[in-house]
Amino acid sequence: MLKLLWILFATMAVVFIVDQSIKSLFVEGFRYYTNCIDLILVFNKGVAFSMFAFLAEYLKWMQLLLLAGVVGYTLWLREKRYFLPVGIMVGAGLSNVIDRFVHGGVVDYVYWHCGFNFAVFNFADVMIDVAVLWLLILNYTVKKA
Questions:
Q1: Per residue in 71-116, pLDDT tens?
Q2: In what order do the strands lie in the sheet with 120-121?
Q3: 108 is catalytic
Q4: Active site residue 38
């Protein structure tokens, strides 16, 4: 179990540190513009596509509770195959929640506008998507004994 905890928390730390390092570049003023993708600074007060922005101050506490529940459930399951993707998801989620406490909103910076306008997102958002996909694959494939 100690090895699994190390995997979980090391993964969380790596994703958190990488994401916060990238975000600090944009908070300090980095910008880059192209024909299809702009790297700009946007503070997202809601969740995906700015949904639930009306929850304002409550949103960060709800997300912390949700992340704690995910970690607790993973520890309760004790399935080693879940610890790496959950570490990725929780590290990224914590990084976004910390943004809410520090900046009042999540620091987003990748703006896709090639052919259509897409939501502005960040590295943590991509890591959450990767982790959710990974967990879905784990849950919908046959577990071999």
A1: 999 999 888 899 999 999 999 999 999 999 999 999 999 998 888 7
A2: 32-33, 37-44, 106-112, 120-121
A3: yes
A4: no
